[in-house]
Design brief:
Layout (H helix, E strand, L loop, with lengths): L1 H20 L6 E5 L14 E2 L7 E5 L10 E5 L7 E2 L8 H6 L3 E6 L8 H16 L1 H4 L6 E6 L1 H12 L9 E4 L12 H8 L5 H6 L13 E6 L8 H12 L4 E6 L15 H18 L2
Parallel strand pairs: 4-6, 4-7, 7-8, 8-9, 9-10
Antiparallel strand pairs: 1-3, 2-5, 3-6
Helix pairs in contact: 3-5
C-alpha cells in the first residue's frame, strides 16, 4: 500500500508539474531516490565534493511530439569521490531531447568503500524510469545507461551485473574506468569504490571486462589515446570482451583529449563524437534483428 501511495504521489505531482511545464522553457524536474517523490535540490554545482547530499534524478523529457520512447540514464564521473553533475550530466539533456530521447541524470551517493551504495542508486533510478514509463512516454524495453570515467564503471557494472528486467538495453561509455585490477585501473576510483584493502576476489568481481556475456547490452565506447587519468586499456579491453562474446559494440579512440571533456563544445572532436553517437543510436534496433 505504501508503495502504491508513493507512486500515486509521484504521478499526481507530475501531472501538476508537467501541466505547468507546457508553458515553460525548462522541462526538467527532480525525484528523490530515497523518498521516490518530487524533490527540490539545493543549487546544483558541477562537482559535488564529499559533502553529504540527498541522491536524486533530474529528468529531462523531450517534447511529446518528438518523443521516440527511448531514455538514457546518465551516471556522471568523479572518481567515486565527487559527481560531475554538469558537463557529464545535465548538459547532455539538450542533445538527447533534440533526438526525442528522455535524459535522466543520476546524482548517486558516494561509496566511501561500500560499493553497494552507488549501485543501489543507479538501479533505483532505472526502476523509477521503468515504473514511470507510461506516464513519461518511455518504452520500458528501450532504456539505456550512460557513464563517464568512474560513472562509466558504474554504468558498465549495471550493464554486466544487473539482471532483467532492470538490465539496461544499451550502454554508452565515455573514457570509462572498467577494471579494478590495480595494474591499470584508476586507483582513486578503486579505493573509493572497494576500499583500500579489497582482495582479489572482490577486484575481479567488479572488473567488468571479466563479467561480459552474450547477454551484455550493446555498447558505444569513446576515449582519447592520450588519456593520462584512466588508461585507455580499460575501454579497449572491455570492447574486446564484448566482441569476443558477439555483443554489438563500437569503439572510437580519438588522438587527443586526455580525460574528462564530457559535453564541451570547445573539445576538438565534440561534434564528431555527437555525430557518431547519433548514428549508432539509430542502429541499435537493427542490431537486434
Amino acid at each position: 500500500m505504501n508503495q502504491f501511495l508513493r507512486k500515486a504521489g509521484i504521478l499526481f505531482g507530475l501531472i501538476m508539474l508537467l501541466s505547468s511545464m507546457a508553458f515553460a522553457q525548462d522541462r526538467s524536474f527532480c525525484i528523490s531516490l530515497q523518498a521516490r517523490e518530487l524533490y527540490a535540490p539545493p543549487v546544483e554545482k558541477d562537482f559535488q565534493l564529499n559533502k553529504p547530499f540527498v541522491p536524486y534524478i533530474k529528468v529531462f523529457l523531450p517534447e511529446k511530439e518528438k518523443a521516440t520512447g527511448r531514455a538514457v540514464v546518465i551516471c556522471p564521473g568523479g572518481g567515486y569521490g565527487m559527481v560531475a553533475f554538469g558537463h557529464e550530466g545535465t548538459r547532455w539533456a539538450g542533445f538527447y531531447n533534440d533526438l526525442g530521447i528522455a535524459a535522466i541524470v543520476v546524482k548517486y551517493r558516494l561509496p566511501h568503500g561500500d560499493n553497494k551504495i552507488p549501485v543501489s542508486d543507479a538501479e533505483t533510478a532505472l526502476q523509477i524510469v521503468k515504473d514511470s514509463a507510461d506516464f513519461w512516454n518511455i518504452n520500458r524495453d528501450d532504456v539505456g545507461i550512460m557513464g563517464f570515467s568512474a560513472g562509466g564503471h558504474l554504468a558498465s557494472t549495471i550493464a554486466t551485473h544487473t539482471r532483467p528486467p532492470l538490465r539496461p538495453n544499451f550502454q554508452i561509455l565515455f573514457y570509462p574506468v572498467i577494471t579494478m585490477d590495480k595494474s591499470y585501473t584508476h586507483l582513486g576510483s578503486h579505493d573509493n569504490f572497494l576500499g583500500n584493502d579489497a582482495g582479489k576476489e572482490l577486484e575481479d568481481r567488479f572488473s567488468n571486462e571479466k563479467q561480459v556475456t552474450k547477454d551484455t547490452p550493446p555498447a558505444f565506447i569513446v576515449l582519447a589515446a592520450d588519456d593520462k587519468v584512466v588508461p585507455p586499456a580499460n575501454g579497449i579491453n572491455y570492447f574486446e570482451a564484448l566482441i569476443d562474446n558477439k555483443v554489438y559494440a563500437t569503439l572510437h579512440v580519438y588522438p587527443t583529449g586526455n580525460h574528462g571533456w564530457g559535453y564541451r563544445r570547445s573539445y576538438q572532436f565534440n561534434q564528431a563524437i555527437l555525430d557518431e553517437l547519433t548514428l549508432w543510436l539509430a542502429t541499435i534496433d537493427k542490431s537486434k534483428k
